[in-house]
Design goal:
The complex is a heterodimer. Chain A has helices at 2-6, 8-16, 18-37, 42-51, 55-66, 71-81, 84-96, 101-109, 113-124, 129-157, 170-179, 186-201, 209-233. Chain A is mainly α. Chain B is 80% helix and 0% strand. Chain B contains six helices and no strands. The chains are: A mainly alpha, B mainly alpha.
């Protein structure tokens, strides 16, 4: 454990996730508040944040359980909300391939939007597998630990922060800080624009399937742009 | 709760485990480069423009504040600055508009 904490890549990953932790704090508090309101005890609330470790799935599960939805509906809805993890998993796969299976299994547990976006950038910039994995581990553990703190804080303190402060806006801001550096090439810009328009256009889809459908359309548009570009630059 | 957690974990592990022993098709590897741009945008946009999320102050201040925050992100690449600038812009715009 000690040699983890001394590792420069682990520390860099940990530090890099601190702003994301600030941005996600309102989200974690909301999850804790929701768990308390739904009648969960501390162990249940903490178990949910520690095991599920996904704000969207936690909020959905709480809302559905509180409204008396059948367990199958709860499980299915949360699975659909987590479909993006399939894409993150596929995108990370080539980089994690050289690592031992135990590392792959451990890092998979820590795969979140933020940890994914930050470490894929690191790997793309040419980090070696060990350094990249350490960076991922540091960032993932930073997110996981703070997530537990914010969930417990919300569970005990309840909704102390008035809605008029609009602190929920910190969550998209924290994603925005991760998105903008990705938009370096025109295929990436096309992918983002397509996904942004599609997610609104497909708003009527059930179970928030518009998120995953929009992302797939964006990926297709980005790939086509990329293919067209390499074809036109070839003599 | 355990089932949801397990499914979540399996989603996260799925392709990492699948492609650990297999070669990934070149076109798929190419397409996956666009996962961050497309998925992050699909997550962000509804959080900004959904009226139910925006509350009584409306969507406009959120859109403008997000655009300003994107500009800050572009110029500074500093995530904390993005959050501070975006929140400050939102509060100002909500007071003014």
């Amino acid at each position: 454990m000690r040699n983890f904490l001394a590792d420069p890549d682990f520390r860099a990953g940990f530090r890099e996730m601190l702003p994301a932790n600030v941005g996600l704090t309102p989200f974690g508090v909301v999850c804790g508040v929701g768990a308390a309101a739904a009648g969960a005890n501390l162990l249940g609330a903490l178990g949910m944040s520690a095991i599920i470790f996904s704000g969207a799935a936690q909020v959905l599960a709480i809302q559905l359980l509180a409204s008396g939805a059948p367990l199958l509906v709860v499980v299915l809805t949360c699975f659909v909300a987590g479909l993006r993890f399939l894409m993150y998993s596929a995108a990370m796969a080539p980089y994690l391939r050289p690592l031992p299976p135990r590392w792959q299994q451990a890092l998979a547990f820590l795969l979140t939007d933020q940890a994914f976006a930050s470490s894929i950038r690191r790997f793309d910039a040419g980090a070696n597998p060990r350094a990249g994995a350490m960076h991922f581990l540091g960032g993932g553990l930073a997110l996981w630990s703070w997530w537990q703190v914010t969930n417990v804080a919300g569970f005990f303190a309840g909704n102390l922060i008035p809605a008029s402060w609009s602190l929920d806006f910190a969550v998209p801001l924290c994603f925005l800080g991760l998105l903008v550096p990705v938009l370096r090439s025109s295929p990436n810009v096309v992918a983002a624009l397509t996904a942004g328009v599609a997610v609104i256009a497909l708003d009527a889809l059930p179970m928030r399937l518009n998120l995953i459908a929009a992302a797939l359309l964006g990926i297709a548009a980005g790939t086509l742009t990329d293919l067209a570009r390499t074809r036109s630059t070839r003599p | 709760m355990l089932i949801v957690g397990a499914l979540n974990y399996l989603s996260r592990l799925s392709f990492i485990a699948f492609f650990a022993r297999r070669e990934m098709p070149a076109l798929l590897a190419r397409a996956l480069k666009f996962v961050p741009a497309a998925m992050l945008t699909a997550l962000i946009v509804p959080m900004i423009v959904t009226p139910a999320v925006a509350g009584s102050a409306g969507v406009m201040p959120r859109v403008l504040a997000a655009l300003l925050a994107a500009l800050v992100a572009w110029r500074t690449r500093h995530e904390m600055a993005v959050i501070i600038a975006g929140m400050a812009a939102l509060w100002t715009l909500q007071a003014v508009l």
